[in-house]
């Protein structure tokens, strides 16, 4: 199916079926940066809320802790709230967090090294003194689903589902609060996430609107990032991203936004795309675990877009089939402030 049904507006009130050159559920892993493990403090609500910077390997951005670190978790939540997205909040740091810190440093006029040091931590906490964790009570509506159990990896099997929903309530809560399932479990040991009325501890994040309309989007293929700017060239947000691969690179140069499709369907047509996902046309229904996630920002190059993902923990850590992949919540935030004609620069 062509993209003729994609209306040129900032948001569409219905799901769409359209062809993309990306969204392949099977991604090629990008090698992780080597790092030395180091012990992390005990992860408790009190430890995270009271966390301060300490010049230890687990907190300085150069090595990775073996368990979630309270200071890193606090910094990631504050970065998220400041619209310098670290991607998924895991308390472990890594490349996405380093890049978010570097973008924050640049905006704050600090030396840009991507290291979580005392000055960066101080700026983050001084700019936002609010609690970084919150209580949330599970409701019956939260548990209404639909939850689909194991998400198929095969497009044909996925196409037979009524919707490609969350696998479990735990996955839904983790995405709602921008966290890994592991961190959510660690903060709530022994909790039944399928029980209405149960109180859980979550990251105090919200799907806030950007401070202005997006006039320009810069996609940095080397850094694997997306930056959004307003008409005055003010940085509105930074997002880590998965951007193409050597075999199927993302575009170069200037494109523009054509429109936005929330809750898109996904079409694989072997006659129009280059990667091998079988020899038959397949239409996968909408849902957060759809190959292109919860939203599609259509670009002026046919079959290319900026979109969400079924696996936020892999953003920036794998290769895609040409498009630009963000976490669902980052893609939704960006999509809410773009309009047709917005310039998209690939560099």
From TrEMBL:
Q: Where are the transmembrane segments?
A: none
Keywords (alphabetical) are:
Cell shape, Cell wall biogenesis/degradation, Lipoprotein, Peptidoglycan synthesis, Signal, Transferase
Which GO biological process entries does UniProt record here?
Answer: cell wall organization; peptidoglycan-protein cross-linking; regulation of cell shape
Q: Which residue positions are annotated as catalytic?
A: 307 (proton donor/acceptor), 323 (nucleophile)
Q: Which family does it belong to?
A: Belongs to the YkuD family.
* Gene3D superfamilies, per database record: L,D-transpeptidase catalytic domain-like, PGBD-like superfamily/PGBD
> What is this protein called in UniProt?
Lipoprotein-anchoring transpeptidase ErfK/SrfK
The pathway that the record names for this protein is:
Cell wall biogenesis; peptidoglycan biosynthesis
Q: Which GO terms describe its molecular function?
A: peptidoglycan L,D-transpeptidase activity; transferase activity
Question: What is the residue range of the signal peptide feature?
Answer: 1-23
> So which domain of life are we looking at?
Bacteria
Task: Output the InterPro entries linked to this UniProt entry.
Answer: LD-transpeptidase, LD_TPept_cat_dom, Peptidoglycan-bd-like, PGBD-like_sf, PGBDSf, Transpep_catalytic_dom
Question: Gene Ontology terms, cellular component aspect?
Answer: extracellular region
| Stored PROSITE patterns | LD_TPASE (PS52029), PROKAR_LIPOPROTEIN (PS51257)
CDD domains assigned to the protein according to its UniProt record, in alphabetical order: YkuD_like
Q: Which residues form the L,D-TPase catalytic domain?
A: 215-347
């Amino acid at each position: 199916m062509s993209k003729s049904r994609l209306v040129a507006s900032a948001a569409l009130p219905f799901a769409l079926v359209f062809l993309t050159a990306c969204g392949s559920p099977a991604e090629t892993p990008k090698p992780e940066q080597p790092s030395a493990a180091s012990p992390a403090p005990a992860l408790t609500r009190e430890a995270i809320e009271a966390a301060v910077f300490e010049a230890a390997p687990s907190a300085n951005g150069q090595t990775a802790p073996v368990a979630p670190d309270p200071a890193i978790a606090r910094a990631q939540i504050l970065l998220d709230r400041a619209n310098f997205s670290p991607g998924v909040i895991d308390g472990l740091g890594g490349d996405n967090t380093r890049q978010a810190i570097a973008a924050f440093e640049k905006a704050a006029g600090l030396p840009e090294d991507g290291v979580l040091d005392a000055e960066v931590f101080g700026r983050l906490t001084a700019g936002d003194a609010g609690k970084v964790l919150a209580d949330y009570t599970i409701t019956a509506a939260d548990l209404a689903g639909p939850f689909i159990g194991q998400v198929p990896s095969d497009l044909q099997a996925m196409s037979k589902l009524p919707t490609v929903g969350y696998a479990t309530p735990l996955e839904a809560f983790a995405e709602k609060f921008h966290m890994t399932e592991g961190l959510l479990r660690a903060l709530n040991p022994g909790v039944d996430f399928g029980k209405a009325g149960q109180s859980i501890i979550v990251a105090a994040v919200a799907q806030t609107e950007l401070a202005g309309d997006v006039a320009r989007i810069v996609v940095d293929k080397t850094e694997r990032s997306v930056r959004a700017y307003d008409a005055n060239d003010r940085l509105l947000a930074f997002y880590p991203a998965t951007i193409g691969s050597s075999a199927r690179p993302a575009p170069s140069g200037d494109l523009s936004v054509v429109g936005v499709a929330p809750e898109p369907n996904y079409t694989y047509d072997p006659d129009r795309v280059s990667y091998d996902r079988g020899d038959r046309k397949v239409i996968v229904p909408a849902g957060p675990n759809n190959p292109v996630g919860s939203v599609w920002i259509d670009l002026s190059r046919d079959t290319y877009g900026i979109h969400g993902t079924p696996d936020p923990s892999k953003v920036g850590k794998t290769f895609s089939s040409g498009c630009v992949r963000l976490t669902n919540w980052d893609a939704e935030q960006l999509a809410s402030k773009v309009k047709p004609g917005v310039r998209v620069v690939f560099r």
